[in-house]
Design brief:
Length: 131
């Protein structure tokens, strides 16, 4: 899901997008502002392999600020740049906040969206590190 696909405030959602280049292991940070307890918040991670080679053994580790006022609701993964989504895909573990991609061919974009519910008003931050 890209920032263009889910506008901020769409259906009560807050959106954030994190693009990480698997080849260069870039890291971006996102801020999520929650305004109302009970809002569903989407954390989005997109991993793109810009090449020139296929990447193997790719993992993404998500870290959240503490205290993080969210409760996990579910997740979905797209292995085709957001065309189709697999709900509850086992490649992501909400217990360890690790997304195990494995092989990422050059030119491909894989996406993860984690659904959470705000349990408190405030600001939260998450980062993702790809390895």
């Amino acid at each position: 899901m890209s920032a263009q696909e889910i506008p901020n405030g769409y259906n009560g959602y807050q959106r954030s997008d994190l693009a990480v280049d698997a080849e260069y292991l870039d890291l971006d940070e996102n801020i999520i502002d929650t305004t109302t307890v009970g809002d569903e918040i989407l954390e989005g991670v997109a991993v793109t392999n810009l090449g020139p080679y296929d990447a193997t053994g790719v993992k993404v580790q998500i870290t959240r600020s503490s205290p993080y006022p969210m409760t996990y609701l579910g997740h979905e993964v797209s292995w085709d740049a957001g065309t189709t989504w697999v709900s509850g895909d086992p490649s992501y573990s909400p217990l360890t906040d690790t997304w195990t991609i494995g092989n990422l061919p050059k030119g491909q974009v894989y996406k993860l969206v984690v659904h959470q519910q705000a349990t408190a008003a405030g600001t939260a931050q998450f980062t993702a590190k790809v390895s």
